Predict the 3D structure of the following.
Amino acid sequence: MAASTADSWSWFPALALGVSFLKCLMINSYHSTDFEVHRNWLAITHSLPVSKWYHESTSEWTLDYPPLFAWFEYGLSHVAQHFDKKMLVVQNLGYASPATVLFQRLSVIATDVVFIYAVRECCRSVREEKGSKDLLVRPYFILAALLLWNYGLLIVDHIHFQYNGFLCGILLLSVARHLQGRHLEGAFLFAVLLNLKHIYLYIAPAYGIFLLRSYCFTKDNTDGSVRWSSLSLVRLIALGSIVISVCALSFGPFIAMGQLPQVLSRLFPFKRGLCHAYWAPNIWALYNVVDKALSVLGLRLKLLANLPKASMTGGLVQEFQHSVLPSVSPSATLICTLVSILPAVLSIWRCPRGARGFLRCLVVCALCSFMFGWHVHEKAILMAILPLSVLAVESREDAGIFLMLATTGHYSLFPLLFTATEMPTKVLLILLFTLYSFTSLKKLFRGFLLNTLEVTYLLGLIAVEIICEVVYPLLPWKQTLPFVTLLAKSVYCSLGVSYSFIRLYLSILRPTDKPKEL
Amino acid sequence: MDTWSLLSICVLLGLTTRWAVSLNSYSGAGKPPMFGDYEAQRHWQEITYNLPVHEWYFNTTDNNLNYWGLDYPPLTAYHSLLCGHVASLINPDWVELHTSQGFESSAHKLFMRATVLIADLLMYVPAVVLYCFYLSEGSNRKKVCLVLCILLYPGLILIDYGHFQYNSISLGLALWGVLGLGLGWDMLGSLAFVLAVNYKQMELYHSLPFFCYLLGKCFKQGMGLCINGNFIAVTVLVTFTLCWLPFLTDPGQVLQVLHRLFPVGRGLFEDKVANTWCSLNVLIKIKTILSTDTQLYLSLAATLLAALPSSIKLLTKPTLWQFKLALVNSSLAFFLFSFQVHEKSILLPALPVCLLLGDLPLPAVWFLQASTFSMLPLFLKDGLFVPYAVTSSAFVFYSVYLLSALEHSSEEELQLKSLSLLPFLSQSPGQFYLSVAAMAGLSFMSVALAPPARLPDLFPLLVSVFSFLHFLGLLLYFNVVQIAEPPSPRRKNPKKTE
């Protein structure tokens, strides 16, 4: 490499610039309906007064993110008008001129600067042992590469089109601040994040319990339990006021206009189905498959009379009922999620392990919401993979879990890019990321991180892909059962994700020797 | 990290960049009636698939030579035939005689782009990897960096995956030729090079160094013992015969093919190109002053004169280092002074300069960036400005960063120790930055500003003259390095003489 030593951080701009160049080259690739969603939001926030933002429904893609994101789109729209004014007309549904595409893509690339900054802060907080002087084997270098060049972010943000880099950047920055001991800033950043995208409510319990236990209670008893008398009211009030003021700034105007119920109904649309069009590889995918298998078995064994024809992966968002197992309602999933995060959250209350314990709990909460949530997108796996990267470069066991989760989770994103032109891109990029993550983490921890079974499972992903893309289209069933490939991929991936979930959960429940310092 | 994993990552990065560029437009997209090079390649698939061999190069009712007639040697035709067969398996409409003219669809574009990627993967990329690992010096890390930088060279990526051509095959074969000669396998190297010439006749720009190197080696072994030379001559003849076999039945065929390959009636240059004649034309209108024949003889004389010193030096001292430099000097001389040169021909000197990235990083990066810049008008016509800007910036940044190009820019390392002929080069890093900034500025102006009404070709002209001056200066520099050849300070092992 260049003559720069590992102490000078000149490699960081090289990594960041490289991935930004790659993102610029992807400008002309396929973009999904999310592109139109954001164009529509630019138009709504620019052309209409604030009072109409959450009432507007010319397009089917209504504003369903919290107000701060609407203000963010409003800010972007002022730059957008210099590229192409026509994109800001609400009636121009599906408008995608070259200038529009250029602007939207560049806006994602530009807002990624938040993510780049957050990665830098995370790298600075990473603990490392005295190892080799080789830059490529330093934990912070590996973390930077794993985060900046994360396959999921590249695919979802810069091809499919979303602003996850910007949002995950704020999340990672908040995590970095907590790792650095700057808790008020971390809390502020999380409050901002919640008001940008409310899906992060799922990890709010981790934040709440951690800050309450480890920040508001300043001292512990000698056995590690909470010392109730050490509650610092000042800190509690400071935290509370930060959160309340951010929410007030965001929702205030709408509360003043009496639009709060309307806003909330837009933010929480429970009319959609249990599973997204492409099943996210979570518990409900397995549940659906078991239900289908039982119903087929029941019919064969003549235990059941006729059953309603269920079409669960027709490609559109639909309601459906389960045939044999009990149907699942939104409240049921909410209860499942809450029940699943309870042990994790309780464990950092009873046995706080400092900021790293909090991070572990955060990842577990994100995974719980992925596993049990209502209408989960497979993109949500990124909420777990990215923070897990920080843990992966510090602990051998976490590195093993990370490799399983990241590889499986990234592969489950394949159906997002279904065009033939994008096939080489997604295959090359996943090979690049997987190869890098395996070899760098193996070198860092000096040894194999996965056992034979896990490696076999991961190699099975290649087999699944080949069968689904090459073998199945040649079979006669393709016309009658077109969803089988999606089903197969989803179910196979949910095995891997569930396995990683269980291992991560066990790692948080396992008692440590002593509580680490904040 | 292991070398092989780093290497795989670099190759994957190179391939990803290539495919990402191919997502953009191609030459002549949506521009009837003539379209562009993309349609030319598709048309050749149509012609070779549907017509018998003896009609490929002739003007017949089925084959209108004015509409992208075949003007590359037989290997290109055979390659088009192969692609045509695959195309007809996927969708016969793509190569249907007459009716498929101007056919454009996204599926077809995917197919065509895929053929370029496969050819690249089979021919060019392995040659680059083998070259960096077996014929270049330095640590394993440095070799991997070299692979990355060569694979990131924007000129080849933009022409092959943007504009649309198959230069990776001819350049890849030429590189295999260099590999063969460098490793001492002269016969295989000659075979590869003959195949390269039979794919694109422009590879003849590289023929003088190949010839002088092999002849020089022959002389060194002693005239009587030159059995190897005889074997090489036989290999060359046999390969030529095999490639031209279908055409050898009729001397008329051979003549017609040669007539298509070397269109001497077309004049000194067409369009703006960064060579001497076009730049001279700005001051003196040579095209109108001299007759076509005089132009031909003038360019022949100038080319040979320019290539002479380098060739003679190589004859007297046939080492790999000399060979690489001679490749650069000869092809650059041909580019600057030859007849009917197209701007894409800058890729021919660019390949050997890529091979010098490890030895003379700063001049090499400078040349390669100038070569990409010289093709800017072509990229603008094809709608490839964004990929051009991104790949050029990435290339300059990463070659400078990874190869520490600016650290090796002292006079000594630039091989100019004993010469004060070229003092301006001692200010190299600053001048390099200035030059790159000027290129960036001109690029931006070409796309953002409209030229004044009196001078509609102002920007292409500025681009080609600016590039020409760079090429001329670098031709002088590389010639000086080759001919003066002081011992290199960085090489620890004594150079092999064979």
